[in-house]
């Protein structure tokens, strides 16, 4: 009888340990799945940024009020965007009456990196835009630009005597530094097609 009680006690202890290990494994699996999904989202977002930068087109746009032009790529603190650019290669599988060029902007909103695009290049204040959240839990994002002198600068377009040249000019490369709340810092350098 005592042997039966001892064996039942041992079985109960082993069952409790087994349950604890199984429960820990399930929790670890959920955490790994969440981390993996986040990593895939970061990779997708970086790939989209890379595609935008590789396909920058030297096409400035008219300002929203029709007074002057904004550069093909620009960083303007007054616009509210961290970066705004014109890119080519916008697919049109439905054959809609629109350009293959697209105006894209990136901005930080709270702790999120937002990508905005418009269906027209030379937009007005009434034009609609599409806003997509790329990544969240971001502390900061910084864009720097490689000029023809091999210098990294934070403002684009660079100041120039030739206004038209400066608004169509593209950098040789763009560096992006994203600081995440959890993952730390990611740095990427992209070559801009000539």
Describe it for me?
The protein is α+β, with helices and mostly antiparallel strands. It has one domain: Pili subunits, CATH 3.10.610.10. 30% of the residues lie in helices and 31% in strands. It has 2 helices and 11 strands. It has a 5-stranded antiparallel beta sheet, covered by helices on one side. β8 and β9 form a beta hairpin. The radius of gyration is 25 Å and the shape is elongated. The model has no long low-confidence stretch (mean pLDDT 87).
Short description:
This protein is of the alpha+beta class. It has two helices and eleven strands; from the N terminus they run H-E-E-E-E-E-E-E-E-E-H-E-E.
How are the SSEs placed, and which strands pair?
Elements: H1 2-54, E1 61-62, E2 69-70, E3 73-74, E4 83-87, E5 102-109, E6 112-118, E7 129-135, E8 138-146, E9 152-153, H2 163-168, E10 173-180, E11 184-191
Family: Belongs to the GSP J family.
Pfam family, one: T2SSJ
GO cellular component, one term: plasma membrane
Question: How many helical stretches?
Answer: 2
CATH topology: Pili subunits
CATH architecture: Roll
CATH superfamily: GSPII I/J protein-like
| Strand line-up of the largest beta sheet | 3-4-5-6-7
Q: Note the overall shape.
A: elongated
Number of domains: 1
Overall radius of gyration: 25 Å
CATH domain class: Alpha Beta
How are helices and strands ordered from N to C? Answer: HEEEEEEEEEHEE
- Describe the main β-sheet briefly: 5 strands, antiparallel
Poorly predicted tracts of residues: none
Secondary-structure class: alpha+beta
Mean pLDDT: 87
Terminal residue distance = 87 Å
Number of beta strands = 11
Beta-strand content estimate: 25-35%
Helix content: 25-40%
């Amino acid at each position: 009888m005592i042997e039966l009680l001892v064996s039942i006690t041992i079985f109960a202890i082993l069952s409790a340990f087994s349950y604890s290990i199984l429960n820990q494994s399930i929790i670890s699996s959920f955490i790994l799945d969440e981390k993996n999904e986040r990593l895939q989202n970061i990779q997708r977002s970086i790939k989209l940024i890379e595609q935008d930068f590789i396909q920058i087109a030297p096409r400035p746009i008219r300002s929203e009020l029709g007074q002057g032009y904004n550069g093909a790529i620009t960083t303007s603190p007054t616009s509210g965007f961290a970066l705004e650019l014109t890119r080519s290669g916008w697919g049109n599988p439905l054959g809609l009456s629109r350009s293959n060029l697209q105006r894209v902007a990136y901005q930080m909103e709270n702790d999120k990196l937002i990508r905005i695009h418009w269906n027209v290049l030379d937009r007005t204040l009434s034009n609609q835009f599409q806003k997509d959240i790329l990544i969240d839990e971001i502390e900061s994002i910084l864009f720097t630009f490689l000029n023809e002198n091999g210098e990294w600068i934070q403002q684009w377009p660079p100041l120039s005597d030739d206004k038209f040249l400066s608004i169509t000019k593209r950098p040789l490369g763009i560096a992006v530094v994203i600081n995440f709340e959890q993952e730390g810092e990611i740095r990427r350098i992209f070559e801009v097609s000539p």
